[in-house]
Amino acid sequence: MRPETAIVEIHSQYKVHTEFYRNPEARETIILVNGSLSTTASFAQTVKYLQPHFNVVLFDEPYAGQSKPHNDNSRFISKETEADILLHLIEHFRVDYLMSFSWGSVSALLALAQCPARIKKAVITSFSPILNAPMMDYLTRGLECLAAVDRNAVGDLVNGTIGKYLPGLYQRFNHKHCSSLDEHEYLQMHFHVRQVLNMDSRCYVDCLANVDIPMLFINGENDEYTSAEDARHFAKHVRDCQFITIDNAGHFVDVEHKDGWRQTQDAIVGFLKKNPATKPLARPLAADYQAVAV
User: Fold this and answer.
1) Where is the AB hydrolase-1 domain (predicted)?
2) 269 class by beta-carbon count within 10 Å (0-12 exposed, 13-18 middle, 19+ buried)
3) What are the C-alpha distances in Å from 81 to residues 65, 87, 110, 141?
């Protein structure tokens, strides 16, 4: 089913491209938060297993994807501003659940820390509160090629690190995507990496003590950058949390192989639905490859 698209204006300052995948039988809505450098296309496989159960909302940040033409992109957008945009979209679409991927989880956690009344549960995938040695190396190398706007180096870095377990065809499309962005997107990502490196993790972790909704953290067994072990440190900060590790998966838990797709589907749908019924059949990984980015 094709989504309903719209441009949502926020605070008369930003215009955000949104995609609403309607399920006429669904009573609840979930919003998905992209990782860095990615767009709504990165959630193509995720929508397939969520739409049979929910209405699904996707969006591009003002500087990315189909939002770009509607914004001047002359100023960098902070993670705090991204969190504010997310809170606005939650109200606009009357969202019940939130799911974030990778570095999109920073703005997601900042938003959740404000305890939006509509959100009942949240799923955080491929993220941890610890910048371990592999992640620090990845971010440090990323700063260099982003600052230089070295498009080919960005694509090589992503595929050689967090994307190393992606199938070959995904890697080719991912490299094409990461190496063909506008200059302001690389500089925006450079700004975000510097912000994250300088941001005390307590800015988006300690404040989660106020969050009283259940949260599920999903990480890949083979992901050394946001490891399942590191993710479990969230238990120190979140009252009601669960952890699931996807077998034989790296950073991109639901696109690397079919079993990872199924495990992730079962984990998320089972968590969000109190009494999961027999699930409608959703089509697993197919030949419609999209860039997945970071």
Assistant:
1) 29-253
2) middle
3) 18, 10, 10, 26
CA dist., res. 163 & res. 14, Å (int): 31
Residue the block writes with tokens 């450098």 = 37
Tell me how long the chain is: 294
> Which residues of the chain form beta strands (DSSP E)?
4-10, 14-21, 29-33, 55-59, 97-101, 121-125, 215-220, 241-246
Residue 29, pLDDT above cutoff 80:
yes
User: Three-class SS of residue 123?
Assistant: strand
CA distance 215 to 221: 19
Q: What pLDDT digit, counting tens, does each position of 75-118 carry?
A: 999 999 999 999 999 999 999 999 999 999 999 999 999 999 99
CA dist list (Å): 124 to 33, 97, 236: 10, 11, 16
Domains of the chain with bracketed CATH: 4-129+201-272 (3.40.50.1820)
Amino acid at 146: L
Cα Rg for the chain, rounded, in angstroms?
17
Residue 95 token pair: 């969202």
Place of tokens 């159960």: 53
Pairing of strands 215-220, 97-101: unpaired
Query: CA–CA separation, 96 vs 5, rounded Å?
Result: 20
Question: Strands of 4-10's sheet, edge to edge?
Answer: 4-10, 14-21, 55-59, 29-33, 97-101, 121-125, 215-220, 241-246
